[in-house]
Amino acid sequence: MTRSARLGPAAQAAEIDRVLTALGQRMGALSGGAAVAAVAQAAVHHVAGARWASVSVLARGRSRTLVATAPAAADADALQRDLGQGPLEDPTPAGAVQLVGDLARERRWPDFSARAAQRLGLAGLVVYRLPLPEEPGATVRLSMYSDTPDAFDAPALWAGSLLASHATQAVAAGHRRQQVQHREQALAAAREIGTAAGVLMARHRLDREGALQMLRTAGQETERSVGAVATEVIAAEARRPPPVPRGPSRTSPAP
Q1: Long-range contacts of 98-102 (CB under 8 A, 24+ apart)
Q2: What's the Cα-to-Cα distance from 71 to each of 53, 61, 67, 68, 139, rounded to whole Å?
Q3: Do the Cβ atoms of 79 and 86 come closer than 8 Å?
Q4: CA distance 93 to 115
Q5: Which of 80, 203, 237, 250 has CA 20 to 30 A from 2's CA?
């Protein structure tokens, strides 16, 4: 039983407000994955009725679980993907909330309901969907699972909606960090390729296009990226001994 399950509605609201304030203060200091995990853990520890939780993303027709507080939550997400049915697989628009109070009474997803109850010990769940900013059509889903039926009351559902918003912000922040990292990596690779092309131009007396073509050809022949070949060219150049300076020529003495 979670600590929040022993609190009244007013006390639950006060605790969730405190938890959300703390999450907001920590969000900037946490990496994307750690921030998402912190939201999922907050759901389990501070939302009445939530035994397990997960955060997943649906983007470009592909669903994947980012974090899960326990194997039961990860297995419940995976079971829905495998069966192609369940709240996570339901074509519900972003912004919707799906509450299943008692899986034993649920008739929309018979295979999922039966297996989730029998294999995983699930009795109820609630799924929140929110659009992922800057990625049209993508959604972030916070799933909270219960091992008792009808576990989520109005204060719990309200708390879950606030945590779902935090989960979306954390996922979006993580995506932005990844985009920045990808741009930085692309710039670094471009610099290395330019340096390697300069080495080949000097060594083989090529123009820039000829040097770049040599890098591309080497990559195709060895099934490596141009960036990897460029790194090897630069490393090989660094290992080359410096040229031996040539001394002044000597002339033979006159007879």
Answers
A1: 98/126, 98/127, 98/129, 99/124, 99/125, 99/126, 99/152, 99/157, 100/124, 100/125, 100/126, 101/149, 101/150, 101/151, 101/152, 102/149, 102/150
A2: 10, 24, 10, 7, 22
A3: yes
A4: 25
A5: 80
Are 90 and 98 in contact, with CB atoms under 8 Å apart? yes
* Residues 123/148, Cβ–Cβ less than 8 Å: yes
pLDDT digit string (tens) for 111-136? 999 999 999 999 999 999 999 887 88
Rounded CA separation 109/30 (Å): 37
Residue pLDDT, tens place only, 159-206: 899 899 889 988 887 666 666 666 767 777 778 888 888 888 888 888
CB 2: neighbour CB atoms within 10 A? 17
Predicted structure pTM score = 0.67
Note whether 147 and 122 are within 8 A (CB): yes
Please choose, from the candidates 129, 145, 126, the residue with its C-alpha nearest in 3D space to the C-alpha of residue 137: 129
The tokens for 28 are: 């900037």
